[in-house]
Design a protein that fits this description.
Rossmann fold, 313 residues, six-stranded antiparallel beta barrel, six-stranded parallel beta sheet, Elongation Factor Tu (Ef-tu), domain 3, 29% helix, 27% strand
Length: 313
């Protein structure tokens, strides 16, 4: 997958089949759209293209209202990682600014989709709106397609167990620590990516080696305090582990809104300090505990470890 962060860098995309949107979470509804543009691109010997935006448009348009407390499911790094797995050919990340937000739907189609990309087909999700004040929709896009000679297709709303899939519902599940429900909506494990920083041994003992994850974007959504079953893929092998999400303390550097994420990998002895790792969350094991002493904490972590080792994920 080729990644472009500037329209001027785009070269030689053959018969583009394009979709556009925030794609936060890269959830099951998003993957339906991506599979469709991949298939359509193959049919015309072309390439699939996804146009997305950074930062999230709501953070720019409504910084004091709807965007103020918005938490994103994926950082930019995580979104790129997840999209690589879909078979997408090209990802274009446009810098979303107030000036860019004033681009009309007509100019977006004329100057970018047609003028820059020469799109052959455009696929949009259910109830998709675009352009200044969200004035563009499927009907308007269809009319522009007749004018500029491209085809348009709308993907129906996706449902999972009779519930409409949306990034909003995924955020709600994550906020309540319901990792399994969020993962069902996502169709993949919730991910936190970042550089690992080894922490000093607890109580001078190296029985549990902990790393703190450097959270790269402050608006990244972090689940509530507690302990979680996680895994990483390192050198082609899956390794189980546990993640502990706790409150910020004086020794914490990399946090988001007073939450820090520490991880321990059960069967991995290699030093991972300084490595950028994708951590996948499988299940919440328990709520946070205020331990009365290190002995009590050690006993609980051993119980947590045994419980996680018995899980199949």
């Amino acid at each position: 997958m080729r990644v472009f962060k500037n329209l001027n860098d785009i070269r030689d995309i053959k018969n583009p089949v394009v979709t556009t949107g925030s794609f936060d979470g890269v959830h099951v509804g998003h993957t339906v759209i991506i599979k469709r543009i991949n298939r359509l691109a193959r049919e015309i010997e072309g390439e699939s293209v996804l146009i997305t935006f950074h930062p999230h448009p709501r953070k720019v348009l409504y910084p004091e209202t709807a965007g103020k407390d918005l938490r994103i499911i994926n950082s930019q790094r995580e979104k790129i990682e997840l999209l690589k797995r879909t078979g997408l050919d090209n990802l274009i990340i446009l810098n979303f600014t107030l000036e860019f937000s004033k681009t009309t739907s007509h100019d977006f189609v004329k100057n970018i989709l047609v003028g820059k990309l020469k799109a052959k087909k455009i696929v949009v999700g259910f109830n998709h709106h675009f352009g200044h004040n969200r004035e563009g929709d499927y009907v308007y896009l269809y009319k522009l397609g007749q004018q500029y000679n491209f085809e348009v297709e709308e993907i129906p709303q996706q449902e999972l167990h009779h519930e409409t899939v949306s990034s909003t519902k995924i955020r709600h599940a994550l906020r309540h620590g319901d990792i399994q429900k969020a993962n069902a909506y996502l169709d993949h494990h919730y991910i936190i990516s970042g550089e690992l920083h080894m922490l000093p041994p607890e109580n001078g003992k190296k029985e549990f080696t902990w790393y703190e994850i450097e959270i790269e974007e402050d608006c990244k959504l972090i689940p509530p305090h507690g302990l979680y079953a996680i895994s990483i893929y390192y050198k082609g092998t899956q390794h189980k582990g546990m993640a502990e999400i706790t409150a910020k303390n004086e020794d914490t550097i990399y946090c988001t809104h007073n939450k820090i994420v520490k991880v321990h990998f059960m069967d991995l002895e290699e030093d991972l300090d300084g490595r950028i790792i994708n951590v996948f969350f499988a299940k919440k094991i328990r709520k946070a505990i205020n331990f009365r002493d290190q002995k009590h904490r050690r006993e609980q972590l051993i119980n947590d470890k045994n419980k996680i080792e018995e899980l199949i994920y």
